[in-house]
Neuroglobin-1 (Oncorhynchus mykiss), 159 residues
Amino acid sequence: MEKLTEKEKELIRVSWESLGKDKVPHGVIMFSRLFELEPALLNLFHYNTNCGTIQDCLSSPEFLDHVTKVMLVIDAAVSHLDNLHTLEDFLLNLGKKHQAVGVNTQSFAVVGESLLYMLQCSLGQGYTAPLRQAWLNMYTIVVAAMSRGWAKNGEHKTD
Ligand code: HEM
């Protein structure tokens, strides 16, 4: 696993904390952007609620639960910046689960772009080039582990 510099860790920790305790509204900004960039992802959420339009989906409790889960994973990564490898098994498993529900690894990159978009909206002037790079580096580590799990699950299915 790649390592982050101490400066990058500091930028990530301080900016994440500055978003406040309730991360869900920031997650909603992130997913609104994701669906703008890749509307087909809406179809992967097979909840009872009608997820026909972006607005229907974004306001459904099940969907907000998923947003909460995503923010908790990011929160776990931010809390483990010194030892991200301890999340490896969890992230492998998460990648496997997403392979099973039909998410492509290319979409993980679009999630990354949406995460940066959310940070830009939420941090305003605080969104600087080094901060952007720090988050991108962390997200790349998380997604690399998820993608390894995704690939393992894919292999399994074709055995
Ligand atoms: C490409 C965009 C994504 C789509 C379309 C997607 C879709 C889904 C779906 C359909 C489920 C199963 C239903 C549910 O639990 O709500 C799920 C579960 C989950 N997702 Fe995602 N997801 C995406 C990205 C992510 C990302 C980036 C993370 C975290 C970094 C994440 C974290 C989770 C977690 C923690 C679960 C619960 C897994 C479990 O049941 O153990 N998802 N996702």
